[in-house]
Write a structure and sequence with these properties.
Elements lengths: L14 E2 L2 H10 L2 E7 L5 E7 L1 E5 L2 E9 L4 H7 L2 E13 L12 E16 L2 H15 L3 H7 L2 H9 L1 E16 L8 H9 L3 H12 L3 H6 L3
Antiparallel strand pairs: 1-8, 2-3, 2-6, 4-5, 5-8, 6-7, 7-8
Length: 219
């Protein structure tokens, strides 16, 4: 799997080549935007939770949509699509800088995947795929799903279209002001004391090693 460079503006300082970090982000924020092109040439978007699976060197995203959702027909007609995962995000005040000649910005993490879609049609295969999604978010429900019985399961499975999305290109944008180390100390303190979106960025700062500057700053 290579890196695709056609799905978003990505300045070099924010271009993360860390595949493990991209996978962590996709698993932490699994509600993705699946984007296809419709017959009018316009983007058609569905917001869906996806399960990330690693198969040897390949990454595959598993998901499903309701049968009335036309998106599965677009995947059938045009197998190539884009999947966007948006991680934590928050405003950044220029007050984090020691000087005043600064402007505000927005920090966020995002992953764009170029994918090749395959529909999953067999009932047993759809059931296995569905159980993986259940296992991600509510593993206790697996047994309840089994206990509902085959007839009920088949009715529910008939109402969805499942698919596998093989990742053929990957872009990971990490826009965390990492190129402005003079802001890190105040930025971390501001986010740590902030609202939920701001606090959610702090572990990613630490994961990126931005804490190394904090440890040596003497402040």
């Amino acid at each position: 799997m290579g890196y695709s460079h056609g799905t978003m503006y990505l300045p070099a300082q924010f271009d993360s080549k860390d595949r493990a970090l991209a996978c962590r982000l996709m698993r932490s924020y699994p509600l993705a935007s699946l984007v296809s092109v419709d017959d009018a040439g316009l983007p058609f978007v569905s917001h869906l939770p996806l399960h990330l699976e690693q198969r040897e060197a390949a990454l595959v995203l598993l998901g499903h949509c309701a049968k009335p959702n036309a998106h599965w027909r677009l995947l059938q007609q045009r197998a190539q699509a884009v999947v966007v995962f948006l991680g934590p995000q928050a405003y950044l005040s220029p007050s984090v800088y020691p000087d005043l000649a600064r402007v505000p910005t927005w920090n966020y993490l995002a992953v764009h995947c170029t994918v090749q879609a395959t529909l999953v049609n067999e009932t047993q295969d759809k059931d296995r795929l569905l159980k993986k999604l259940i296992g991600d978010h509510d593993p206790a429900y697996v047994q309840q799903w089994i206990d509902l019985g085959t007839e009920y399961q088949h009715r529910m499975l008939a109402g969805i279209v499942a698919f596998e999305l093989e990742v053929t290109g990957l872009l990971c944008m990490v826009k965390m002001n990492q190129h402005r180390p003079e802001s890190h100390l105040r930025m971390r303190a501001l986010y740590a004391a902030g609202e939920a979106n701001e606090r959610a960025l702090v572990p990613w700062m630490d994961l990126l090693g931005m804490g190394q500057f904090l440890a040596t700053s003497g402040d």
